[in-house]
Amino acid sequence: MKRTEPTSGVRDVLLVEDDPGDVFLVRELLAEVDPRLRLTVAGSVAEAIARVAQSDCVLLDLNLPDTVGLEGLREVLRADGSAAVCVLTGLDDEHLGTAAVAAGAQDYLVKGAVDGPVLIRAIRYAVERRRAEASLLRLREEQLVAAESARLERGLLPLPLLAGSRVRATSFYRSERTRAVLGGDFYDAVLGPTGTVHAIVGDVCGHGPDEAALGALLRVSWRALVLAGVDEPQLLPKLQQVLESERHDDSLFTTACTVAIRPDSGGVGGVEALVRVAGHPPPVSLRPAVTPIAPPIGLPLGIGPDVGWEPLLVPLAADWALLLYTDGLIEGRGPVAGELLWPEGLREVLGEERRTGLPELPARLVERAEAFNGGPLGDDVAILLLSADPARRDVEPVLGDVTAAR
Predict the structure, then answer these.
(1) What pairing do the DSSP bridges indicate for beta strands 284-285 and 321-325?
(2) Residue 396 has pLDDT above 60, yes or no
(3) How far is CA 135 from CA 1, 4, 324, in A?
(4) Spatial separation of the C-alpha atoms in residues 231 and 200, rounded to whole Å
(5) What's the chain look like in SS3?
(6) Which residue has better confidence, 264 or 62?
(7) Handedness of CA 84, 90, 94, 99 (dihedral sign)
């Protein structure tokens, strides 16, 4: 049972004691100091365990009929690790009090050597110490989450390597996970050794740190394959090999969309994109008009062996722009009641947002999608917007731009 922290002071104390005389004494001492305090009595540890979560503090006698020594304390803490426990010992067993504190109790008192003020002060100190320990634990958990997110951020939210290219990249990322920055979606864009700009957007099925870590691994592996000069047709097959060797569950699969932007092979000075889709939403061309790109859609990565992903060659205008995204953007509610946004609805939104600048467009699309959905989207969202960078046509190569809105 989840513990409810008291908002102020101590109101409920559970006394675990089988001696009626000691019960009477503790009740009188507490009533003398704070009559509003509620005291509940349990005659054994077994009886107390069901009541621990409703108590601010537990006064635990170490000499009970159903436990020996520190075993009663251990049982209480196993039942509720956040319980504030102050143990009671006899004059001859004071050494057990010290051992109990080492075992997880907040304090100990010697029967017959305390009065009301000492007793209530010990109870309050025990509660405050437990609260302080809980705060430190929450802080440590938050630090671990931050460290996890920082590690995954380096893997999932890269700075595209576009130095020397004429391509600009703008990105957006938002995780569905409540306490994490990152999910299993990933993206990247890299200038390959032959002058082709390669880009990928992918989505590992499932939600959680394992999927996020796998997404980061796939993204880094894909980048390494591109920089190593692996031929474009082999990138997705090699990435599938990585997925199959590294996934922790054989049922895990990954959808992906890759784009290879290269000079027009016709030699007329134009640009063309080679698009492959593995069970993923295809990209959208934004210029000169919003136009769907419809490559053959192959199976996701990890579904089966000897799977192929046929390409679609797309000529690009001089001021081209391509939008790559994960399905979290389009699987929330759309403007039509009872229907999801889907790619068709996204294209309508893109038409309405034609005056929005490219650097602001990804965040604006998520804002519109959340407005349709009536709140946050239910899945991770990754967006990679690639566009021609005319400023780089007659200048020395510089580092590719990237805007990451998180």
Answers:
(1) antiparallel
(2) no
(3) 19, 14, 42
(4) 15
(5) CCCCCCCCCCCEEEEECCCHHHHHHHHHHHHHHCCCCEEEEECCHHHHHCCHHHCCEEEEECCCCCCCCCHHHHHHHHHCCCCCEEEEECHHHHHHHHHHHHHCCCEEEECCCCCHHHHHHHHHHHHHHHHHHHHHHHHHHHHHHHHHHHHHHHHHCCCCECCCCCEEEEEEEECCCCCCCCCCEEEEEEECCCCCEEEEEEEECCCCHHHHHHHHHHHHHHHHHHHCCCCHHHHHHHHHHHHHHHCCCCCCCEEEEEEEEEECCCCCCCEEEEEEEECCCCCEECCCCCEECCCCEECCECCCCCCCCCCEEEEECCCCEEEEECHHHCCCECCCCCCECHHHHHHHHHHHCCCCCCCCHHHHHHHHHHHHHCCCCCCCEEEEEEEECHHHCCCCCCCCCCCEEC
(6) 62
(7) negative
pLDDT in tens, 232-247: 999 999 999 999 999 9
In the predicted model, what is the mean pLDDT of residues 15-19? 91
Cα–Cα distance for residue pair 363/357, rounded to 1 Å: 11
Tokens of 39: 């005291």
Per-residue model confidence (pLDDT) at position 389: 84
Q: What percent of the chain has pLDDT over 90?
A: 49
Highest mean pLDDT among 52-56, 65-69, 93-97: 52-56
Decide if 12-141 and 157-405 have a common fold: no
**Total residue count of the chain as it appears in this document:** 406
Mean pLDDT across 367-372: 96
CATH superfamily of 157-405: PPM-type phosphatase domain (3.60.40.10)
Query: Would you kindly state where each structural domain of the chain is located, as residue ranges?
Result: 12-141, 157-405
Would you state the pLDDT for residue 315? 94
By CB atoms closer than 10 A (0-12, 13-18, 19+), residue 102 is exposed
Which CATH number, 3.40.50.300, 3.40.50.150, 3.10.105.10, 3.40.50.2300, labels domain 12-141? 3.40.50.2300
CA–CA distance, 255 with 230 (Å, rounded to integer): 20
- Whether residue 29 is predicted with pLDDT greater than 50 in this model: the reply is yes
Q: What is the pLDDT of residues 335-347, one digit of tens each?
A: 998 999 999 999 9
